[in-house]
Amino acid sequence: MEFRNNEAIYLQIAAYVSEKILRGAWSPGEKIPSVRDLSVELQVNPNTVMRTYEFLQSQEVILNKRGIGFFVQPDGVKKVKAYRKERFLQQDLPEFFRNIYLLDISLEDLQARYEKFKSENFKPE
């Protein structure tokens, strides 16, 4: 995983875990990798992964079953979507709007490119 300098590593790992949940790689009720396993996979300190898991627990995305491990909450997908949507709307969207305004990109062009992106990257539901 390539980490960016402009965001805390534990939040970047939280985004990685959240994406796994949203894409269905880790389903509700399913056990997720242990702190140690994920830290080895991502080549980070286990304390960083633990901070990520604590953050995701506070967001009610995952839960810790003592002695067994961490699991995706039954409504974990809903919680991830709500958190990421709010974060996108508050942080990323204003910058996106600024750029499309400054670059004079039409909504029609955005729509066409979005549809192309979806067809090339995601299978229909």
TrEMBL record:
Name of the protein: Transcriptional regulator, GntR family
Top-level taxon of origin: Bacteria
HTH gntR-type domain residues: 7-75
GO MF annotation list: DNA binding; DNA-binding transcription factor activity
Keywords from the UniProt entry: DNA-binding, Transcription, Transcription regulation
Pfam families: GntR
Gene3D superfamilies: 1.10.287.100, Winged helix-like DNA-binding domain superfamily/Winged helix DNA-binding domain
SMART domains reported in the protein's UniProt record: HTH_GNTR
